[in-house]
Amino acid sequence: MAQIRLTNTRTRTKEDFVPIDPGNVRLYLCGPTVYDRAHLGNARPVLVFDLLVRMLRHVYGAGAVTYVRNFTDVDDKINAEAQRRKAAGRPGTLEDLIAERSDETIGWYHQDMDALGALRPDHEPRATAYVGQMIEMTRDLIANGHAYEAERHVLFDVRSFRDYGKLSGRSVDDMIAGARVEVAPYKRDPMDFVLWKPSDADLPGWDSPWGRGRPGWHIECSAMSAALLGPSFDIHGGGIDLQFPHHENEIAQSCCAHPDAGFANVWLHNEMLQVEGKKMSKSLGNFFTVRDLLDRGVPGEVIRFVMLSTHYRKPMDWTDAKAREAEAVLRRWRGLVAGIEPAPSPAPAVIDALSDDLNSAGAIAALHELAAKGDGAGLLASARMLGLLLPEMGGWAEAGDAAADQIAVLLAARLAARQARDFATADAIREGFAAAGVEVKDTPQGPEWSLAAGFDPARLADLAKAHGA
Ligand code: AMP
Ligand code: ZN
Question: pTM of the entire structure?
Answer without folding.
Answer: 0.89
